[in-house]
Design brief:
Elements (H helix, E strand, L loop, with lengths): L1 H21 L1 H6 L13 H12 L1 H38 L9 E5 L5 E5 L10 E3 L4 E2 L2 H11 L5 E4 L7 H5 L7 H16 L14 H12 L8 H8 L3 H4 L7 H19 L9 H7 L11 E3 L2 E3 L4 E4 L2 E6 L2 E4 L23 H28 L1
Antiparallel strand pairs: 1-2, 3-4, 3-5, 6-7, 8-9, 9-10
Subunit structure: Homodimer. Interacts with SCN10A. Interacts with DIP2A; DIP2A may act as a cell surface receptor for FSTL1. Interacts with BMP4. Interacts with CD14; this interaction promotes TL4-mediated signaling cascade.
Subcellular location: Secreted
InterPro entries: EF-hand-dom_pair (IPR011992), EF-hand_FSTL1 (IPR057020), Fol_N (IPR003645), Follistatin/Osteonectin_EGF (IPR015369), Kazal_dom (IPR002350), Kazal_dom_sf (IPR036058), Prot_Inhib_GrowthFact_Antg (IPR050653)
Length: about 375
């Protein structure tokens, strides 16, 4: 009996222990702030929660909750640190990378450094003239343009580029490039196609071949061939076809027109007599015919249309597959000679030099004849 009462007393004391932990004394140690929006739980609810926390299962739940809270906080801090470290990592990757002028370091998707053209230069004004004759706002713009175009451009001098002297352009011969030849041909074909008349109900029209045959007979002198002069007269029947204004001087444009007519004759002159039969004339102006692109040969090398080379004080230009050179006297002031020929293909530099000398001799002969004619008058 005494043992039972003793155990009962211990049990009552053990039962009162959590009540003292969660009673008024426990609450007095932690001041509470009353929030009007949050209802205050009653004491019975506090006692129930204290009982749950005092049990083994309640302690495990509290530990699990604490671990989850710590995990969320640590993960958030780690993500924040990672975001703040991204620019730093880029600077670290590009720290020891040197990119040339006009380029800057960038990071690839694999976090590897690479050099790319500068996306945007600063707008400070310090004009420079490039070796390509173009003025740039500053050095950065020059090197950036060189990077984007893949060309080598150097700073020629500070400041805006100066205009080139007009005498430099006079050193080049007047030539008909392939683009000039093809443009003249396109205009002539467009003019002829506009004269096509379809057949009517009671009348016969004119097709493209019949129109060409009509013009061929009108300008042929009777030998069934069109030479360069006859071809030029035919072309001059249409103003839009001959209105090629590549040069400022109209006399030079007139000379260009004749050179392009020679280039058109060369396209379909199968027997190389510098005259076109009707079949050759028809082939030359056939809209379905695609003129070939010819190159100039010199010292076992091929040069594109428009390429230039220097021979002493004369300049030679590749035009429609032929070298066309000036004939200037190299003593004193250079004077351009209004006579040009087209040398044969596959010339050596020595042969090209001899060709220029022949042009100079021809000019001297022409000057003597002109002087004799003046004296006779």
């Amino acid at each position: 009996m005494h043992g039972g009462r003793a155990r009962g007393k211990e049990g009552r004391q053990a039962k009162k222990l959590p009540e003292r932990l969660g009673g008024a004394a426990g609450r007095a140690s932690i001041p509470r702030t009353r929030d009007p929006h949050i209802p205050c739980p009653d004491e019975d609810q506090d006692q129930d929660e204290d009982k749950v926390l005092a049990s083994p299962a309640g302690g495990a739940s509290k530990m699990l909750w604490n671990h989850l809270s710590i995990f969320v906080v640590v993960t958030g801090i780690a993500l924040g640190l990672r975001t703040s470290e991204e620019p730093v990592s880029k600077s670290k990757i590009c720290a020891n990378v040197f990119c040339g002028a006009g380029r800057e370091c960038a990071v690839t998707e694999k976090s590897e450094p690479t050099c790319l053209c500068i996306e945007k230069c600063k707008t400070h004004k310090r004009p420079v003239c490039g070796s390509n004759g173009k003025t740039y706002l500053n050095h950065c713009e020059l090197h950036r343009d060189a990077c984007l175009t893949g060309s080598k451009i150097q700073v020629d001098y500070d400041g805006h580029c100066k205009e080139k002297k007009p005498e430099n352009s006079a050193a080049s011969p007047v030539v008909c490039y392939q683009t000039d030849r093809d443009e003249l041909r396109r205009r002539v074909i467009q003019w002829l196609e506009a004269e096509i008349i379809p057949d009517g109900w009671f009348s016969k029209g004119s097709n493209y071949t019949e129109i060409l045959e009509k013009y061929f007979k009108n300008f042929d002198d009777g030998d069934s061939r069109l030479d360069s002069n006859e071809f030029l007269k035919f072309v001059e029947q249409n103003e839009s076809a001959v209105n090629i204004t590549t040069y400022v001087n109209q006399e030079t444009n007139k000379l260009l027109r004749g050179l392009c007519v020679d280039a058109l004759i060369e396209l379909s002159d199968e027997n190389a007599d510098w005259k076109l039969s009707f079949n050759e004339f028809l082939k030359c102006l056939n809209p379905a015919f695609n003129p070939p692109e010819k190159k100039c040969a010199l010292e076992d090398e091929s040069y594109e249309d428009g390429a230039e080379t220097q021979v002493n004080c004369n300049r030679c230009v590749c035009a429609c597959g032929n070298w066309v050179c000036t004939a200037m006297t190299c003593e004193g002031k250079n004077q351009q000679v209004p006579f040009q020929e087209q040398p044969e293909d596959k010339l050596t530099e020595e042969e090209l030099a001899r060709y220029v000398q022949e042009l100079q001799k021809h000019q001297e002969t022409s000057e003597k004849i002109k002087q004799m004619t003046t004296k006779d008058m």
